[in-house]
Amino acid sequence: MLDLTKLASPLDVGSVKIRNRAFLAPMSGITDEPFRQRAYAHGAGLVVSEMVASGELARGRAGCGLRIHHSGLPVHMVQLAGREAAHMAEGARIAAGEGADIIDINMGCPAKKVTGGYAGSALMRDLDHALSLIEAVVGAVEVPVTVKMRLGWDESALNAPLLARRAEQAGVKMVTVHGRTRCQFYQGKADWRAIARIKQAVSIPVVANGDVGSPAEAAMILDESGADAVMIGRAHYGAPWMAGSIAAAAAKEAAPDVPESPQALADYVVAHYEDMLTLYGIESGLRQARKHLGWYLDRHAVGVVDERRKAILTSFEPVRVVAALREVFSRAAEAMNLRSAA
Q: What amino acid positions are annotated as catalytic residues?
């Protein structure tokens, strides 16, 4: 039987102690302050901000402040993306000044709008340039610096072990590896065994990422990669408690505060929705929250009719959205009761 217990133990990232080894991945447009607070409350060991463009942060563009805002959690980790060393260094200084305990450098994002600007996973095509960014960030701040990468740009250039080794030599304290190349995007199955080559190349902690959505999968990725921790991303859609549930399984405990009844779930979704409206304001919050509401419905209210779903996701009136959400989950409860009675 595969062993999951390692995930329950603390992990040192430089001078920062992380309470367990099941992490929430940084996801653009998703891991904002309300989401991170929930994931941490459910027991995630580490939560990471959305990716922040270092150039925009350095230039003071509106909206960047929300992404690096300290949410009051014990460990505040900010992820930066960019291709200019001066911007990356300045962005890191700004984030550290706002209370960031760890700065993560994004060298794994496959999105065309990021790689088209020679950032994200495009940096894996030029390791000398990638190292110049790492050195700039490490030299700019006193807090630990980490890097998130992929296996390489494509199957002909699987250079993650070399990048990780050079990053460690430059002062990086942890690397996270998504078990796909950039050209795979999110297609196919993540290659967990390939992450083992990165683990063998460095002495700093290695975090394995890609296709983990259950305690069993977490145990498998640890076994195949030899990694020190796991990072969970898309499995959190509609379930901010996923990393915490995996950490709790590793500790043989119940995950804290996971909503278990339809009524509790309705309260949970409504509270998340209202927190997003408070953070972003009504107009922007309505847009930002829709994807989350869609994921909650997809995962927990499968039988909702299309008309009702569309009304929830397109309404500009929060009061109507809240009422509809409560109705949907109330009907889900009735359906569950009917099935159990049968």
A: 109
